[in-house]
């Protein structure tokens, strides 16, 4: 690679000359940086598309700007799990290229991976050219991708020490509680408050229902349709599952619960500011059918699924509160962040409603 004055202009979160110099050392012969742009849609880690000589496209991932919660946005873990899954598993992931542990290069740790052709399907408008048959095929493919993640032989792919599955759900409750406290402190530092009394009551209810330990399985941590790249032709498929920053070993039903919270249906009376509302379009599975397909593929016992859905509401509320804190600090890049804080009370209410009913359906 030649590092010269013809480099493109910088974008938020990227020091282009330093990145170019690093690429010249780590990926010699990859070519000059011709263009770099922020890929829209991310509300957490930042994702950039980089065009190199010869129109080769690669992707760079780095943590968000501003307020970053402790233990979150771990680029090293994301790089490791992608590299492991890319070697001999049926989980669709991009091929990793290089990892940078030196924060002096662009101001944070980051990694590079191949660009994967595919669509991020999120809104009802994205369904305009999708037939009901294709929508059903995508639903089936997404359920199969989640089942593939949860049935990976973690020891065989070198991830046997990727987490501590013993006490996983209890640690998750404590971890996200600390994240919540950190976000509250950050919000107060901006001169704002976000009083949500239903939060403490939910934490107490979840603590009373903590399940016994499940066998150690790979958990994605934020699995949903718009954290995947989809293709429609020649048949509907998931080309790649992305955004692995919260992956670990733990209870796979925590993933399923979160997927169901994100999953929109046409009859829903409230719409969250995150997740793929496209699933309310004709042809997509409903939450129940998605669950039944997953159960058929894995054989897992789903008797306590109401707990996992309520827990997912709690976890997502904490995540949104962290994003809301960054928005108040003027440390977000992109659009739509002014709506994020409003999703937190909706999620807390949904969690209580799910526990009260004792059933999803």
Structure, explained:
Helix content is 38%, strand content 12%. It has 9 helices and 9 strands. The strands form 3 sheets. A 5-stranded antiparallel sheet has the order 1-2-3-5-4, with helices on one face. Strands 6-9 form a two-stranded antiparallel sheet. A two-stranded antiparallel sheet has the order 7-8. The radius of gyration is 20 Å and the shape is globular. The relative contact order is 0.15.
Write the layout of secondary structure elements.
Blueprint: H1 16-26, E1 33-38, E2 46-52, E3 56-62, H2 75-85, E4 96-100, E5 110-114, H3 132-150, H4 168-189, H5 198-208, E6 217-219, E7 228-231, E8 237-241, E9 248-250, H6 252-262, H7 287-298, H8 305-328, H9 343-357
Antiparallel strand pairs: 1-2, 2-3, 3-5, 4-5, 6-9, 7-8
Question: In summary, what is this structure?
Answer:
The protein is of the alpha+beta class. It is built from nine helices and nine strands.
């Amino acid at each position: 690679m030649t590092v010269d004055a013809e480099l493109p202009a910088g974008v938020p979160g990227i020091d282009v000359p330093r990145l170019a110099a690093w690429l010249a050392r780590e990926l010699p012969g990859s070519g000059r940086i011709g263009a770099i742009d922020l890929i829209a849609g991310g509300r957490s880690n930042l994702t950039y598309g980089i065009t190199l000589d010869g129109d080769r496209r690669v992707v760079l991932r780095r943590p968000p700007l501003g307020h970053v919660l402790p233990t979150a946005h771990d680029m090293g873990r994301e790089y490791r799990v992608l590299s492991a899954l890319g070697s001999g598993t049926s989980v669709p992931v991009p091929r990793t290229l290089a990892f940078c542990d030196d924060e002096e290069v662009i101001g944070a740790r980051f990694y590079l991976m191949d660009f994967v052709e595919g669509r991020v399907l999120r809104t009802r408008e994205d369904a305009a050219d999708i037939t009901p048959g294709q929508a059903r095929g995508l639903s089936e493919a997404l359920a199969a991708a989640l089942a593939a993640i949860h049935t990976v032989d973690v020891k065989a792919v070198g991830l046997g020490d990727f987490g501590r599955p013993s006490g996983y759900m209890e640690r998750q409750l404590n971890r996200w509680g600390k994240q919540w406290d950190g976000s509250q402190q950050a919000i107060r530092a901006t001169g704002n408050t976000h009083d949500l009394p239903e939060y403490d009551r939910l934490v107490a209810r979840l603590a009373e229902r903590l399940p016994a330990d499940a066998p150690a399985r790979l958990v994605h941590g934020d699995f949903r349709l718009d954290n995947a790249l989809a293709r429609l032709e020649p048949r509907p498929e998931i080309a790649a599952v992305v955004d692995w920053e919260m992956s670990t070993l733990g209870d796979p039903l925590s993933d399923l619960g979160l997927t169901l919270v994100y999953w929109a249906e046409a009859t829903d009376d409230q719409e969250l500011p995150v997740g793929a509302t496209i699933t309310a379009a004709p042809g997509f599975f409903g939450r129940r059918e998605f669950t039944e397909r997953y159960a058929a593929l894995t054989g897992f016992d789903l008797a306590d699924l109401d707990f996992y859905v309520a827990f997912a509401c709690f976890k997502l509320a904490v995540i949104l509160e962290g994003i809301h804190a960054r928005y108040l600090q003027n440390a977000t890049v992109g659009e739509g962040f002014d709506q994020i804080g409003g999703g937190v009370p909706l999620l807390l209410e949904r969690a209580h409603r799910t526990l009260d009913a004792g059933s999803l359906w």
